Amino acid sequence: MTLLNPYFGEFGGMYVPQILMPALLELEKNFVDAQKDINFHKTFFNLLKNYAGRPTPLTLCNNLTQNTKTRIYLKREDLLHGGAHKTNQVLGQAILAIRMNKKQIIAETGAGQHGVATAMVCALLNLKCRIYMGIKDIKRQHPNVFRMKLMGAEVISVKNGSGTLKDACNEALRDWSNNYENSHYMIGTAAGPHPYPTIVREFQKMIGEETKKQILEQENKLPDSIIACVGGGSNAIGIFSEFIHDKKVNLIGVEPGGYGIKTGKHGSPLQYGRTGIFFGMKSQLMQNEEGQIQESWSISAGLDFPSVGPEHAWLKSINRAQYVSITDAEALDAFKILCKKEGIIPALESSHALAYALKLMNMSPEKEQIFVVNLSGRGDKDIFIVDDILKKMEKKHESISKSF
Amino acid sequence: MNRYQKVFEQLSKIKEGCFVPFVVLGDPSLEQSVKIIEVLIKNGADALEIGIPFSDPLADGPTIQKANLRALSQKNNFFQYFKVLKNLREKNTKLPIGILIYANLIYNQGIDNFYLQCRNSGVDSVLIADVPIEESKIFYQTANKYKINSIYICPPNADDDFLNKISLYAQGYIYVLSRSGVTGTENNNILISKNFIKKIKKYNSLPLLQGFGISDVIQIKEAMLSGLSGVICGSAIINIIEKYLTKEDIMLIKIKNFIKSLKISTKLV
After folding, report:
1. Coiled-coil ranges per the record (chain A) (predicted)?
2. Are residues A161 and B61, on separate chains, in Cβ contact within 8 Å?
3. Shortest alpha-carbon distance between residue A19 and chain B (Å)
């Protein structure tokens, strides 16, 4: 019997091999106990404040919105130590692991931000750490691989399947099946079997709590829309959670549209997937007619996942949140604009959320509206990818010019 | 009396353990897979465990994962899988046939529809690798509706609560894990203690089959002597398939010889 409800509506659950059930129940029990323990909260908030650098600012972007009546604020998770919101929940899970007397951490990573955050706290708290990463992601996110190794993590290259986050997740779960007695599996997003979606949301909800306080201070009212990118969905659920009951605030999740939905190369299970069971949970899923899991695609390795956290599937099913998609090209444009206009290099993940905010703004420039975009991470890790793409685009452009 | 009960009863009379080979349907191709299964049946399989290929078999180790991917590369579909299973049933009326599958494949085609097709194809049991007993209610109820046995896994560290629970649900046999982790033959330390087996038997009268890491005759003899009813052997067979992928004749002979030797070792006298 679980202590908490493992489901969000029909989504969620614990779809794992039987061998893992004791590990999940042990984790849930310790999480529930920790939630009631003042010392746990003190330790957590002390680390958030003095190690990670919370609270993060809420920045108004005046240059982006010139000649419109839109006000866009960025919730600056990019300024957190480690460069992304991932640090929040990793600190929570690490002290939970210590509470469970687990000395080793298993993790998976896509873009490497969760891997970096995990390596960071493992170094800080003296935990042994091994991180599974798809071979394709290792190539496209080399700076983060280097960071992880610098901080003492063992990075294990996953060659199975598509060699991306999905396969790294499977491999990490396999490792955990074998080693749960002395290892904690630090899932990087609000997905996977119960209790992870709940744990990750609770350890990310300060993003929303701070945002609410800050926007009320600066605007004296709540925003019209909160916009966040959705891969697994942790930064989005972190900022949404505080506003779920404020029905007038639109909650907008932005999935990666990749090369365009029609090409099939995307990562938008909420809009274009079907309900299914994968990675320990029932949620929306990219799958073929036979129920085999399909490979997702995004320019951003951090969004390249064929499923999504179950709470998002539920929020969509009850029409509380709206989910849209932004293509690679649109995200890239937003990336460049933010660099140029505001002097902030956003992660390619967050660029999807910003791109949708700009799209909404440009559709109704006369409308008075306030948007908060969750800038979930900084883009230093992505500059080489962007550089490559821009160079390729320039070459293509030159060859077209020559042919005329 | 269902097919499992009959087989276990017969084997018990002649003091033999139940030998259950596991292969993935469609590995390396559907045609070859049928030939392999025929070799298994002719050379000592007392029951069959057939894996339905899935893209993300996270309960399985690299050997079975590769078998799944090889099978999937053939682009077969469920219609074909059920057709093969039905043919198998028609040719082997007494042999218990179980399938091992991942939840999404069942969910995707509709739970009711899936179990209906199992019944129509003569499948005796279904084991869902990523559905623990705690999540199994809807699958279990539908399986019962179509008289399909639900197979459950008993981990090596199961406590009294779990043993009590599994005794209420388990049908056919109980799949006792040799160890934690995923399938594969890398780890040879697979002896289940006699005390643990006694403890499971206190709660349950169903036959116990040991799985995970079974790859040689000594292990099987030990399993038989410790009070288990039989063994399930998968990765070791699939290793042979993988090794002789392009040499079908040799592959079938190697499997035949391997299966014969394992089956003989289930004999207690």
Report:
1. none
2. no
3. 6
